[in-house]
Amino acid sequence: MFDFLQGYDLLGAFWVTVKLTVLSAVGSLIWGTMLAAMRVGPVPLMRGFGTAYVNTVRNIPLTVIILFTSLGLNQTLNVTLGSDNFDTINFRLAVVGLIAYTSAFVCEALRSGINTVPVGQAEAARAIGLNFTQVLTLIVLPQAFRSVVGPLTNVLIALTKNTTVAAAIGVAEAATLMKSMIENEAQLGAVSAVFAFGFICLTLPTGLLLGWVGKKVAVKR
Amino acid sequence: MTSVLYDAQGPRAKRRNLLYSALFLVAFAAVLWWVFTSLDDKDQLAWEKWKPFVHGEAWSTYLWPGLKNTLKAAALSMVIALPLGAVFGIARLSDHVWIRVPAASVVEFFRAIPVLVLMIFAVAAYSSYTDISSDDRPFYAVVTGLVLYNSSVLAEIVRAGILSLPKGQSEAAMAVGLRKNQVMRFILLPQAVTAMLPAIVSQLVVIVKDTAIGGAVLTFPELLASVGPMSAYYGANTIASFTVVALVFIALNFGLTSFASWLEGRLRRGKKSTGATVPPAAVAGTEAAGAGGGVTV
């Protein structure tokens, strides 16, 4: 039944998908947090930059960004990201593109979390004499983080699915393998079922587990 | 200006903010300078490379035909996905387990799978089982993939829209003696549609962005796919082509996003609705990036 899988590195392809997802998730969490800090901070210039970045990047298709990293950054401007191996370069370029894109959504998720904390909480904290650092670390951020798990889960799942766009610049991940398998095997239904199942295995448990965590830790108001 | 995070600023805080602004400006200027010098090194800022976009020849030959395909695929996908999504969304709210469970599994199945995988499947299926010409196949495949994915997302939006209505609406309708499907048809759906409109418009942004996947991977001749022939014809103006294409996408999607939020504000104040709207962020998987997500991506 599944003997057509022989000769293909199915697990290897999904492993590349997982690597793309994890690296981009970590990167966009860092850059997205910095963007969110800019957007909620007191400095007007940084607020403007954060807003402009998010509104611009959110409205460009991810495919445009990823293709640009390859055709624009790599082939026109000769950015190599410290590697001379073609495959490694494309993988790293894809990660850079995914981070640039996903950070905008991470930023919005974090900002919505901060916005769910009622101003009264911070005012009460200041009234009992806590200073800025204490207000932030003891009162506001713990509440914000707890309400942000759900939205961030959605971003993570979207990111997992978005890694397939890296196929556009020849990264050897699941969608790339699926394309070549369908061209070589006369088993359209079976091949598609295998890849659909693979992605369901990646996204569904993540969604269920983190969704449960999110419900558990969310602040009831 | 008081926010959750900081109080109104005194003179010291204002001085500190000025310092931060100055530091940020210096860093930003350094990045900009690096971008410009590297572009200049590769001769990407030469006037010849940008001229076609100013004089309009590139628009009529490459950009406009591509944009037309993008809009055609997006509009068609939306028109097909909306009724499908409504059917599945209502089916998920059914009182009968044997309707609710299959509808839920179909919706969850298509939401868990990347759009690109659906598109690749559709291309192969059309080439094996239909006689659609190979020129039209990418277009059909892109629309099929978008419909399958987005109808399941729209099903969730419809469900959230109906659930967002006050319980009294259906209770009152039942009390007047309407049957279940009458309650749905005459009372709940019309009100839910207004609540859902902003989220539906936001979903259009996702659809427009996802058409580009078809351009890059399935040779569907849409706006992004015009970059290749364009930069070849106008002497390797890759950066200029990408910039213009990105700007067109930004203008289009920013217009849609602004329209969605204007609509939301208007419906909130409107007299005819309950004032309930479904923010796109409330539905997991909207606003998500194409093959993707809502705050969501």
List keywords for this structure.
heterodimer; A: 221 residues; mainly alpha; MetI-like fold; 0% strand; B: 297 residues; disordered C terminus; transport (chain B); MetI-like_sf (chain B); transmembrane transporter activity (chain B)
Determine the fraction of residues in helical runs of chain B and give it as a percent range.
over 70%
Could you give the order of the helices and strands of chain A?
HHHHHHHH
Strand content of chain B: under 5%
What is the CATH superfamily label of one domain in chain B? Answer: MetI-like
CATH superfamily of chain A: MetI-like
- Rg of chain A, rounded, reads 21 Å
Gap between N and C termini of chain B = 30 Å
CATH fold-type name of one domain in chain B? MetI-like fold
DSSP, total strands of chain A: 0
Task: Give me the CATH architecture of one domain in chain B, please.
Answer: Orthogonal Bundle
SS element count, helices of chain B: 10
Parts with pLDDT < 50 across at least 5 consecutive residues of chain B: 285-297
The proportion of strand residues of chain A reads: under 5%
Could you say which overall geometry of chain B the principal axes of the C-alpha atoms support? Answer: flat
Structural class of chain B: mainly alpha
Subcellular location (chain A): Cell membrane
Main location (chain A): membrane
GO molecular function (chain A): transmembrane transporter activity
Keywords (chain A): Amino-acid transport, Cell membrane, Membrane, Transmembrane, Transmembrane helix, Transport
Report on this model:
The complex is a heterodimer of chains A (221) and B (297). Chain A is mainly α. Chain A has a single domain (8-217), classed as MetI-like fold (Orthogonal Bundle), CATH 1.10.3720. In chain A, 78% of the residues lie in helices and 0% in strands. Chain A has helices at residues 10-40, 44-58, 62-76, 86-115, 119-127, 132-162, 174-184, 188-217. The mean pLDDT of chain A is 88. Helix content of chain B is 74%, strand content 0%. Chain B starts with 10 loop residues before the first helix and ends in a 28-residue tail after the last helix. At the A-B interface, α2, α3, α4, α5 and α6 of A face α1, α5, α8 and α10 of B.
